[in-house]
Design brief:
2 strands; two-stranded antiparallel sheet; alpha+beta; 62% helix; 84 residues; 2 helices
């Protein structure tokens, strides 16, 4: 049975995107806000960077953070498995 997906309007760096997502998923707006905060922080530090470079740098920083969190998760899961 296909999910009913709603279109959510998301604006990043002045660009508007319509993201299709499960209407119960509230993470779209949180993700947008987090991305915009990351870009804004980078823009404050590097005002001469283009929007494209800011977006790529923000994506790289977030991917690095995700990789670190996954590594931490795997280590914790391994510790818990050993105790079980």
């Amino acid at each position: 049975m296909p999910l009913d997906l709603d279109r959510t309007r998301v604006e990043v760096l002045g660009e508007v995107f319509y993201i299709r997502a499960d209407p119960q998923n509230k993470n779209i707006l949180k993700t947008r806000d987090f991305l915009n905060q990351q870009i804004s922080a980078l823009e404050s530090r590097f005002p001469s960077l283009s929007a494209k470079r800011l977006a790529i740098l923000a994506a790289f920083n977030m991917a690095d953070e995700l990789a670190r969190l996954r590594e931490d998760y795997d280590q914790l899961a391994s510790i818990l498995d050993k105790k079980a």
